[in-house]
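Cross-check.
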Amino acid sequence: MSDPSIKKIFTVSLLGSQRVKCMAAYNGEALVIQSMEAVSGLFGTWRKPLEQECKKNAESGFIVLVEERGTAFFSQYGSQVLFDDIDPEEKRTYQNIAFDLYYSLTAMGDTSGNRHGNLVVASGLERHLLTGNVVNVEQDEKGRNRYDIEPDRFSGYHRSMLLAVLAAQFFNPPTDEYLQEFFKYIGGTPDKPKPLRTIEAVIASRNANGGFQ
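Predicted model, tokenized:
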């Protein structure tokens, strides 16, 4: 049995210049980006395979986050995230929150080889790390980081990686399978706890308020 304290993560970005899916894992300290792959071709050629992959991963206990608008073809098997939505508690966009967490991860620990602080990427994926020519970091009047993005250089690879960061550090696992496996692992069967923060609650809040401006 796999250790349920390790979050298994599958993300898909469909709104950037490239459609990209990402597989990752988080052990509470380090986020490991295991693979990233472009989703290419005509919609009819990749819709069904991607749906099946989202469904399979969700059933296997992965946290599945999908960046898509309109009909939830893929996020029906996980959760929908739009970077320009505002988190009702943080009062910041998910994009800014993701950047905050990304730079916090990369600032912790040593940088050597494929390890960039507490962000570890598989060989060959280093070229998709955020650099100064992709995003410029400044501070707003409250001393918080503000991110000036170069749209032409902010790719689907960056977006899917940031989704993985959000899945790792911001959203609690929403799946019953995760909770059941966790309680088996620790040898107990307590009542299912309420997550402190689930993306379903965030989406419900957005929908109840007619969307965030």
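Residues 7-128+155-208 form a domain with the Nucleotidyltransferase; domain 5 fold (CATH 3.30.420). The CA atoms of residues 94 and 111 lie 26 Å apart. Passed to J.P. for a second look.
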